[in-house]
Every structure is written in C-alpha cells, then in structure tokens.
Write a structure and sequence with these properties.
heterodimer, A: alpha/beta, Rossmann fold, two-stranded antiparallel ribbon, 12 helices, 8 strands, about 45% helix, about 10% strand, B: alpha/beta, 2 domains, five-stranded mixed beta sheet
Chain lengths: ~350, ~325
C-alpha cells in the first residue's frame, strides 16, 4: 500500500461531489476566520498580561483543522491538539468560552484547571488533549474500539504531529488499530517543526504517511493549506472507516507560521520558508478559490468578516466577565463521582 | 456460599460482571484463547466472544490507553497486565491522561487495570514487584490490594463500578494458596474501608495484600510464646486508605508496626507512619516501626528473595521490639 499524494481540489463541481454545497463552503470560510480571529485576539490578551502561562497558535493550520472537522459526522469523536483550534470552532464551541479558557476563568471548558487549548467540550464529541503527545492516539483508538464492540457506525479521529510521531504511543495505537481494523482516522499535522527540530531530525522516511503501510492501512499525503483537499481526503477516510474499511493515516503538510509558542520567534526557521508558505496561507487561498469558483461577492465577504468581528468583540467582553475560579473548589473533581458518568461521552 | 481460591473469586467476580453488564469487556495479552497468564479469564472468550475478551498486541500503552477511550465512550473496560511490573510501560498514560482527565476536563475515566503483583516465586526483578505506592502518589488513581477471596471478588465489582481509574493489585502468592468462603451472589466491597483481620490489644499491625498472612502468622507466635495480643488491620485499599480505622486501632493498642512487601523508602507505609505521627502521637507508647522490603530490586535467587521479602520472623522480631519498648 504505497502512500498516495492527494491532488488539489479544482472546480466547484468537484467540491459538490465531495458533499459540500455553497452554504457549507461559506460556513467553512467563516470557521476559518473565527479560528484565526480567536488566536489573534488571544495573542493580544497575552500581550496585555491577561493570559497566564504560555500561548500557542495554529497559524497556517486553520485549513487542516477546519477541513477535517467539517468532514466528521455529528456522532464522531476526536482529540484535537494545540494547533487545531479550527476543530473546536467547527464543532461549535463558543469563542467566548475559548477566550475564558485562555484566561484561566471559570467558564473555560476546564474551569481554570488546565490552560490554552488543553480543553474539550464532551457534548460536541471532543476529548481534551494532554501535553504528552501523541498520548491521545491510543485514546482515539479506544473510542473506535468501543464503536466496533457495539457495532456503531461512528468514527474516532486521532490527531498527532510529526514531532510526536517519534514516540511509541503512535506506534502502539496505529498497530492496534491496524490489527483490529478499527474505525479510526489518524491525522498527522506535519508542520515541519517540532519546536526547533526539523523533520529530517525527527524521522527518516520521505513521508510520515509511508508508515501506514507498516500497519496495514492506507496513508495519504495532503496539502494542509488546501482546506477542500483536506476535507475531501478526510471525508473519504472517515466514511471508509465508518463502513468497516479500517483506519487511514492522513498526513497534512503545512508550515507552522509562528514559533512553538508566543515566547519563541522561530529564528531557526529559514526566512525564505516562511515567505514561500505565506503565499499558501490557507484562508487567503480559500478566499481566492471562493471568488474564482463559487462567486463569492464583496458583500458576502464583508458580511462574514463583519459578523466574525462582532462575534469576537462580544466574546471578549463575555469572557472578561467570567469569574476567576474559586480556590475553595480546588479539590473538586480530583475524584469522579457516579453522577459524573452522566455525560454525553459516557452514554 | 462456597469455598474458593483467591484466583477463582476474581475470575467469578469478573465473569459475573461481564454477564450482567454488556459495557464490561476485557483486554490484555493472552487473555482470550489462552485464558490469561494465570488463567483468570479461562473460558471467557468462548462465552463472551473475541470482541469482549480481546487479545491485544504486546503493547501496554495501547491496552490501557484504549481502555480510557472506550471508557469515555461508555464502556467499562477491564485491562489485564500480564504482570503488575509491566504497568511501567503504561505509566505515562495512566498518570498523564487517565488520572487527570476528570480534574482538568470533567471527563471521568472508569477503567480497571488488573495487576498480578508480588513476589515469592523467584520471578526476579521484573515479575515480582508491588508498585502500588507509586500510583497511590498520583491524585486521581485508586489502588486496591485485596487479601482474601471474598474481598477480591467484592472489591473487583467495586472497582468496575467506580467512576475513576482503579488499579487492582492481585497478589500472585495468594492466587491458589488462599481459599475462603465467597458468596455466590453479586456484592460490592466498598473501596476505602479497612477490615480487622485479627483482633488484638497490645500492638497494631497495619498491612495489606499477602503481608496480611505474614502478619497473622507473626501475631499467632507472639500470642502463644509471648502472651502479647496483636491486632492485624488489612487496609484492603491503599488509595483511598482508611485513616480512621488505622487511627482507631493505633489508639486502642498504642503501639504500631506498619508492614508492606514493597520497598521501604517512599513506600506507602511512610505515609501511614507520618499520619499516625501527626494525628495520634499522644496515643503512642513506642516509636512507629516499619517492616518492609529493603531498598533494592527484587532478586531472583530463592535465598536472596527470602532475604528481601519481609518474613514472619522479621515481623516477629519487630513486634517483640515493640512489646519490649
């Protein structure tokens, strides 16, 4: 099973074939803008000293995140990571709750117990990441195992990065999924830099997707800045898994357009590389595509960006009103109670 | 009620839960066709099929990590580590994901990891350990260490019911050696409640797992040869642990020996001793004594292993020193 390199998406008719109508496309565009806007607002908040700890963004990865999330079904689950804000946005997390999370407030999904994108809304089928990547891959495989045991037509999506692909959890998870042909899609966000470590110091194959063959399933390399190509390949992989066709490894190639986190100016990334990939900005690229292929008008564009701006302004105000967590509640939730099992996840 | 071995009690308890709750499944190495390294799941795959008694690849992180994912999707997974020692390969997952998910993300992780633990068979450094203290230190993980067949079944049921990750340490030395009356019906032995294995008045021994029997034997000797009455408290669960029962026994006897098969430094006995020191200092008539394995890997040779694992004579010696104090 040789690795396949996905073709870019061309015409609107091709997109329709993949299951998206014009309204869906505008929704994707809106989600891309919301994703970037949240991270840009977050950056400002960080500089204002309102975000404790560190601050991470997924600039350059918006298309990859939104593309995969748009391909997931409502009952599918996933484990998005710190560059995958677009997944949370697409699944419907309200931006004000994300900003509250950044600020460690009571209304963030983790109520100040954890920071930045270490969060998830279980009601939206998401599972909160940990720092030790790719630790979420075995968890995603376990979700898929539950679906397989119960013979449900649901799919789990497990995210990891090219850096964490070097760790054993990735191998164990993909091996188990391959052996049992579980309904899981592995999404490797390959942004070329694991903190300061370039890919040639992280792995020795040409594509990480090459590894899929070793686990008995297909690997596909996709241009992660092409939201429609990501959508098409993710959709195909998810539906294949849903129908019993087993896992797929999608490698979504992007460039991390900022440092590892806000403190890092990424001096080690060649300037030319940034310049080259800036021309492939996923949002600008999709906007151009929409204008050329789906008759996106100035009015529509202005309408969407105006609504996004208002959404974020309101979100900021609402998040800022969210209270600090009460230290008296510090120990809450160290131990789960039987009532806690009454969550959407656990049903 | 029938007399059963410790191993049979665990097996029966697990089978009962598999029958009554279709969310329960078993995953581990060689648990299916082979019935598990110790045969706890012998015949299970015939009854429940290959998707509820799942033979996994040799991959502890995948086993326990998959349990977490499945638990989040509403299942009640029971993982088997072939030996407790191999849990080190899944340490990261348990500590990083399973233990913290409820606290930070509001998502409970109701999984059980069964861990055949303990020495006494020349298993050597990698098939003999008692790593419960390491996990008891991690907020969010429960550690259960039954000593009797009745408790083994009742605590396993409790562990499966529990909404938290539970590490279920089953002592290999008890598997076929210890028999006891076990109710046929389903019952739950609460996690966090100690039991008095032997009533006494002069010295209290706080212990768990296979050491309950070592303590009991030592207590008999003290009673017969020295006319000293020794109480043996079986902690049953190390996290949470029954502080009240321990303090009550200490207050009654005024002298206490903490006994465990794990190594001394950082062993859970240190936490128990510290708590007694903080909360029952005025009730003590002698310094708290610890009898534990020395700070050394578990050795292979029978004579070395005997020198390593606390023996009845070691406990007798400790008790006599306390009695004489």
């Amino acid at each position: 099973m040789a690795v396949r390199e996905a073709e870019p998406v061309g015409s609107f008719s091709e997109v329709k074939e993949a299951g998206l109508d014009r309204e869906d496309l505008l929704g994707i565009y809106r989600n891309l803008l919301v994703t970037r806007a949240i991270e840009e607002r977050g950056h400002i908040l960080y500089k204002q000293g309102k975000i404790p700890g560190s601050f991470y963004t997924g600039r350059g990865n918006e298309g990859a995140a939104v593309g995969v999330a748009s391909a997931m079904g409502p009952d599918d689950v996933g484990t998005p990571l710190h560059r995958d804000m677009g997944v949370h946005v697409t699944r419907g997390v309200e931006p004000w709750r994300i900003l509250a999370q950044y600020m460690g407030r009571e209304d963030g999904p983790t109520r100040g117990r954890d920071g930045n994108v270490h969060m998830a809304d279980a009601r939206l089928g998401m599972i909160a990441m940990v720092s030790h990547l790719p630790a979420m891959l075995p968890v995603a495989v376990g979700c898929a195992l539950a679906f397989r045991i119960r013979e449900e037509k649901r799919v789990a999506v497990g995210w990891f990065g090219e850096g964490s692909a070097a760790r054993g959890d990735a191998h164990e998870a993909m091996n188990l999924a391959g052996v049992r042909q579980l309904p899981v899609v592995f999404v490797c966000g390959n942004n070329q830099w694991a903190y300061s470590t370039p890919t040639h110091l992280g792995y020795a194959v040409e594509h990480l997707a090459d590894r899929a063959a070793a686990y008995g399933f297909e690997g596909v390399v996709v241009d992660g800045t092409d939201v429609l190509a990501v959508y098409r390949e993710a959709k195909a992989a998810i539906e294949k898994a849903r129908e019993g066709g087993g896992p797929t490894l999608l490698e979504l190639k992007t460039l991390r357009m900022e440092g590892h986190a806000v403190h890092d100016d990424a001096f080690y990334v060649p300037k030319e590389l940034f310049e080259e990939w800036a021309k492939r900005d996923p949002i600008e690229r999709f906007r151009t595509w929409l204008r050329e292929n789906a008759e996106l008008t100035d009015e529509e564009e202005e309408g969407i960006s105006g609504r996004v701006k208002k959404l974020l302004n309101d979100a900021l105000a609402q998040a800022d009103e969210s209270p600090q967590p009460d230290p008296a509640t510090l120990l809450d939730g160290v131990w789960a109670t039987p009532e806690d099992l009454d969550t959407p996840h656990h049903k | 009620m029938a007399e059963k071995t410790y191993l049979q009690a665990i097996s029966d308890g697990l089978r009962q839960e598999l029958r009554r709750d279709e969310r329960v499944f078993v995953i581990g190495e060689d648990v299916g066709v082979y019935g598990g390294a110790f045969k706890v799941t012998l015949g299970f795959q015939e009854e429940f099929g290959p998707w509820r008694i799942i033979d996994s690849p040799l991959a502890e992180t995948a086993i326990v990590g998959a349990c977490t994912g499945a638990a989040m999707m509403g299942m009640r997974p029971v993982a088997e580590m072939q030996f407790a020692d191999f849990i080190s390969c899944a340490w990261d997952h348990l500590v990083t994901v399973a233990a913290k998910q409820r606290f930070r993300a509001g998502t409970p992780v109701p999984i059980v990891v069964r861990l055949p633990s303990g020495g006494g068979f020349s298993g050597g450094p990698f098939h003999s350990q008692n790593p419960e203290s390491s996990f008891a230190h991690i907020p969010g993980l429960k550690c259960v260490c039954p000593a009797t067949p009745e408790d083994a079944k009742g605590l396993l049921v409790a562990a499966i019911e529990d909404p938290n990750p539970v590490l279920f340490f089953e002592h290999k030395h008890l598997y076929r050696r210890i028999k006891g009356e076990v109710p046929d019906e389903r019952y739950v032995t609460p996690i966090g409640k100690a039991r008095t294995h032997r009533e006494g008045e002069d010295i209290s021994v706080i212990t768990w797992g296979a050491m309950v029997y070592t303590a009991d034997e030592a207590a008999k000797q003290l009673e017969e040869a020295d006319d000293v009455s020794v109480e043996v408290i079986d902690l049953r669960t190390v996290m949470p642990w029954d502080k009240e029962a321990v303090l009550a026994s200490v207050r009654k006897c005024s002298k206490v020996l903490v006994l465990h098969e794990d190594t001394r430094t950082g062993g859970f006995g240190g936490e128990i001793a510290a708590t007694i020191g903080e909360e029952a200092f005025e009730d003590l008539d002698a310094p708290i004594k610890r009898v534990c394995a020395p700070d050394c890997p578990v050795p292979f040779s029978p004579i070395l292993e005997k020198a390593y694992i606390p023996q009845v004579d070691d406990v007798v010696k400790g008790l006599r020193e306390l009695a004489a104090y």
